[in-house]
Amino acid sequence: MTLxxxxxxxxxxxxxxxxxxxxxxxxxxxxxxxxxxxxxxNLFLFAMGRPAxxxxxxxxxxxxxxxxxxxxxxxxxxxxxxxxxxxAMTALVVALAIKRVRPSADAAEG
Amino acid sequence: MTLIFMxxxxxxxxxxxxxxxxxxxxxxxxxxxxxxxxxxxAKTAAGVLAGAPLKVAIxxxxxxxxxxxxxxxxxxxxxxxxxxxxxxLVMLYARYYLAGDTRLPRFFALLCAFMGAMLxxxxxxxxxxxxxxxxxxxVASFLLIAFNAPDRGAVRGAxxxxxxxxxxxxxxxxxxxxxxxxxxxxxxDIVLRSGELLRADSAYPWILTCVLLAAFTKSAQFPFxxxxxxxxAAPTPVSAYLHSxxxxxxxxxxxxxxxxxxxxxxxxxFAVSTxxxxxxxxxxxxxxxQHDLKGLLAYSTISHLGLITLLIGFSAxxxxxxxxxxxxNHATFKxxxxxxxxxxxxxxxxxxxxxxxxxxxYMPLTGSLAIVAAAAMAGVPLLNGFLxxxxxxxxxxxxxxxxxxxxxxxxxxxxAGAAGVAYSxxxxxxxxxxxxxxxxxxxxxxxxxxxxxxxAILVVIxxxxxxxxxxxxxxxxxxxxxxxxxxxxxxYSLALWHGFNAPLxxxxxxxxxxxxxxxxxxxxxxxxxxxNPTPTGYLAFECTLLAFARSGRMLVRQMxxxxxxMAILAFAGVLAAALPLVSGxxxxxxxxxxxxxxxxxxxxxxxGIVFAVASVSTRVRPVTVLLFLGAVGLAVAIAFAGxxxxxxxxxxxxxxxxxxxxxxxxxxxxxxxxxxxxxxxVRMRYIALAAAGGGGAGWLAWEAMQRKPxxxxxxxxxxxxxGAGGTNAVNVIIVDFRGFDTLGEITVLAAAALIVWAFxxxxxxGVLGRFRGSFMLPLAVRLLMPCVGLVAAYLYLRxxxxxxxxxxxxxxxxxxxxxxxxxxxxxxxxHARPVRWLxxxxxxxxxxxxxxxxxxxxFLTSAFGHPVLPWVGEVPLASAAAFDLGxxxxxxxxxxxxxxxxxxxxxxxxx
Lengths: 110, 911
Prior knowledge:
Chain A is mainly alpha-helical. Helix content of chain A is about 70%, strand content about 0%. Chain A has 4 helices and no strands.
């Protein structure tokens, strides 16, 4: 129960901080907000797998593997790719932010 | 309780004082902490001096047998009283010496910190704790010497003192560990009782070497005496406090403290007394020839420290009494002399003995105080210095056995006594008489009364002790000496008059010869014409330092460059070092949050939350915000690790590094607008909205976690081995069960990377070599890259069965390649061709899928087998591994593009 409370409250705080940053509308704050939001969302997705301690989804080479001995691997697989895509997303936002401040230079050459 | 309070009080005071702006307030706080400590010492005096030490033990590192034990016995009490008493006086003095200086709070904070460190050394009841505080005194001394920092003398002096004393600190730590191994405990009481055991052990010579090295470096004994002369670059209050009365006595304290445990052997006798005797003579002679007033006092301090060391070396119980007695006497007269020297410097603007002459007319009060103190230093009767010098002469004469030393000891004592009289005479005559001042920057006059007061108090003590030694110091001296000897006290008499005897005759001879020597040297001002003596020891130190730097540079030159042999050697070395990890148990012991680890989990949770909230703040600089974000990411990674998601933890960790790297690189060109100031109502609305949104998300997660629906994952778990030949269910899902999904995701990743890459194409005309001047970085990267490659390969290979896989391995490899590109200053380094990585990765992944089409199966159907290779044995081989290789290549290419796109500096910034 403690564990669920921990996760839920962490998600709440991360999302709240992210939303606050996004609302401020400053470019840098947006980037911070998006980063924080991706932490929150990743944790949220991860929480859907009913996390538990000491049950890594590494199954034994022989014998049966059940959900009682291992956590759900599917959300983990989804979150794993989401983390990497989130990184690409951050980079894209930063690139957009950098480009945004120099539209005239591009327009002149384009 | 009192002890803990005493140990913490100076540190609290230091913290508070450092936050103050006002010099007066800083002084009040600092000085009141010193006075409070004195009061506490007075309160404990009755019990402690009667022979009942206070002791309190706090468990610290029980697994190592180390505890934070504090212990106040009479010896510690005496030193603590010196530290606090002189500390209070010096603070009063410094208040006027540095009057009007804006750095006063910093100065007082540092003095308090030093007081705390020194009290720690004195009060430590555990040898490890003692060594720790020992190092802190070195650091405090370093900071205080470097107080006038841009000044070259201050910087060099600080560097020398730290190098030498920290060397001793390391030696002390080694000695302490050895003692702990022999005795089986670091507790001082136990160690002091184990003298027999220690002296009989085969490690005794090493222990002795280490401990003596520590004591000699700290107390400026030959051949380490040079640092003390350099330390005179510190402000004079610091010299009076640290470099005459307290810090340099720490070495003496260590010798006295461990006397019952280590002394009593021939090795102790010869090492300690020889070094002490050399230092005694060297310091005494050098002091006469110094033209700098503080230099004279510094060398005289060195000489007196040598005297005390020599007494301890004699290893006779009466000699220990004399040593403790001289510690007190020297502290009082030398601190007052330093303060007087500071007054002279302060009022004249110089302290060159060839210029400040004839000051008696301008400052008779300071003059009379200084003359009395200098007479005490010379050992003139009716003053405290005379008494301890008598005892010293007596001890030198009483020495028996130990052939060469016993013969030379009285001679050395006599010579040193004469030298002491000579430099004391020079101090008195050259400063206050000997003609008129020469070209002083300003006209000297008496200092403010408050500045002279500490000097007067110390001089009064000198005289009072000289007249009535037994009444004033009898009890603490006896108690401290008993504690140092660790047994019963010998017969000795503390009195002004012992009748006509040999020591008295030696004193008289020393006085006459000393004055005669000085008069001879000063005839026709011959002494003033001599150049300052060459600081041989200091020059040797600087040369050693240079030699180290030069040989280091040579070594680096050998390793640098594109020499294939070195690279291969490094690779082989890394491989060899990594082998035990692979065969042993590198296989994860992930931290878990179950049971007693809940507290740890909450700590991580708190770190994450605190940094998340902190990164919202607009008052923090953007760079700091990025570091905060990194901390949040790390907390998330640890959470993953604790919640049975090792793959996620690894991925998050590497993505975090990549993100921070990217943002730091991009920060320079990111438009940072000033934060908009909004009305409170608007801000409240934002906060309310954000809280509602966050609360909603949290509530949703909470609700979802309460339900236990049917999930499809049973299938994934049960079929991981039978259907895909891998035991890491997460990886199996990524590369096999949901491989098509992954193919789409890496395509998205590649697209995003290409967009960013194309977007910032023009920037690549700029320069990448941001670290071009750097020397170590390219070298480090060359050594690191084989490592990174190896670990990445390892992570990739084990991915199917254990945490790891293409994503993780790709991220790690990409981070390494980015570092390489940044360090070498060229993104065209052979490995960092992002577009190729990307293209080949997509091709591999796609072709692996297409291969199954050829065989008549649906797209991306995987096959696996366990072929047996010669030597290597059974190898789990799945077609999914090829797909994972494609994933890895795409991740490498994309990450490289995403980070390197921002890594190019502007053209104009290239110089």
